[in-house]
Amino acid sequence: MTDSPPGGDTPLSSARERYPVSFAVFGVARTHRALASALLRDLGLYPGQEIMLLQLWERDGQSQQALGKTLGLDHSTVAKSLRRLAAAGLVTRQRSDADRRVTLVSLTPEGRALESRVAEVWAELEERATAGLSEEQRAQFVATARAIEAAIEPGAGIDG
Q1: What is the annotated signal peptide range for this record (predicted)?
Q2: Is residue 10 part of a domain?
Q3: Is residue 90 domain-resident?
Q4: Tens-digit pLDDT string for the chain (160 aa)
Q5: Which of 36, 52, 62, 142 has the greatest count of CB atoms below 10 A from its CB?
Q6: For residue 76, what are the domain limits?
Q7: In CATH, what number is assigned to the domain containing residue 30?
Q8: Count of beta carbons in the 10 Å neighbourhood of residue 90
Q9: Where are any strands of DSSP class E within 1-159?
Q10: Rounded Cα gap, residues 31 and 11, in angstroms
């Protein structure tokens, strides 16, 4: 039994040929996230939470709003992630004394202690993702990925 139409071309391979860049971006994102998920699971983290922790390791005690803005995430996504991180004992959230509307996020000692382990995960991700690529290919990939990101960033060249 096969889902191939006459001629042997599958609908998916046909779509890949019509939209090669989008399928390449999708494929890289999907496989990278799957590997990240597997590696982070050992640390008790979900993919994306380590990005929030990376921001806090750079500048602890920032507002929930600042985290969302820096990461390009909406309020509800940040709030959900921070709830999970707080439940895991990795961060605390408290109202600012200066402005009670602002929620400040701080690392706990347990959250700080994960920094080197997350760095190891990211080093492994980087190594596996670029295995077999030359330095030139790596630089070219980063430049191309950043150009694609800029082109599809919300509001980039789209009238609305």
Answers
A1: none
A2: no
A3: yes
A4: 444 444 455 666 788 899 999 999 999 999 999 999 999 999 999 988 999 999 999 999 999 999 999 988 999 999 999 999 999 999 999 998 888 889 999 999 999 999 999 999 999 999 999 999 999 999 999 999 999 999 998 765 554 4
A5: 52
A6: 21-151
A7: 1.10.10.10
A8: 24
A9: 62-63, 91-95, 103-107
A10: 21
